[in-house]
From TrEMBL:
Keyword hit for Protease: yes
Family (UniProt): Belongs to the peptidase C40 family.
A Pfam cross-reference name: SH3_16
Matches recorded under InterPro entries: NLP_P60_dom (IPR000064), Papain-like_cys_pep_sf (IPR038765), PG_Endopeptidase_C40 (IPR051794), SH3_16 (IPR041382)
Keyword presence, Plastid: no
Domain NlpC/P60: 156-280
Identification of the protein by name: NlpC/P60 family protein
Taxonomic path: Bacteria, Pseudomonadati, Pseudomonadota, Alphaproteobacteria, Hyphomicrobiales
Keywords tagged on the record: Hydrolase, Protease, Thiol protease
Gene3D superfamilies: endopeptidase domain like (from Nostoc punctiforme), SH3 Domains
Amino acid sequence: MTAHDRRITPARPDLAAASLRGIVTAPRYVEGSERRVIETAVPLRPDPDFSASIDTELLFGESFTVYDEMEGWAWGQADRDGYVGWLSANALAAPRPATHSIGVLRSFIYPVPSIKAPVMLALSHGSLLSVVASEGQFLRLEDWGFVFAAHARPVDSKEDDPVAVAERFLGVPYLWGGKSSLGLDCSALVQTARHACGLACPRDSDMQEGELPGERLDPAGPLAQLRRGDLLFWKGHVAMVRDETTMIHATGHTMTVTVEGLADGIARIAAAGSPLRSIIRPD
């Protein structure tokens, strides 16, 4: 990726982040202000227009640095993966330090510490929480509401198998640009799985293919060379090797996160005009 990729560079013809002074030419440089997402998942778009395509999503609790606001829109950069774009300013609030994250597929915020209370908001895997106290089986959040404690984990705790994380999403619908357990795309599944294990990962499949460190395997080599966790890349698509015969991916073929045979899947995608392009065994 180049330094001026619009997806990860907070610069426009009229302004740029102050951190880019001397790197990007702009008539105005802005320091930016940190905010926090307060919706289940908010779309990040390339333009301030609800009809614009969705590049990605930010989940509840994620940090977002705002460099510009206009007519209910905020333009800035996501802290978690550096993605730049526009989102609804109403989805943002003052920042809070994250202490926990949601470790199950989905959970809820309740107004009181009771499972019988009406739900205030749904939370997706990877949502960030600011917890201030423990009350019985619940955790009390700094701003408002309670989360079932067993569904959360300290932010510094890490899982050890990205594929096992991805397997929790089996059956979740495919959604272009989606990043939540209500719907996500192929690269979001890989990113989510790696983030849960404390591993850095860019957002889009071409970024992952070009930037993730690891051993590069011969895509024309035998399938026997593959191991659990290897990443398979096609043009615009990525899958994770699950075992010696299967892979897991979010695919428009079934419109779900699914397990597919390695040989069958590679042949099917190649027959559609996209041969396997590269294989990475991530560090």
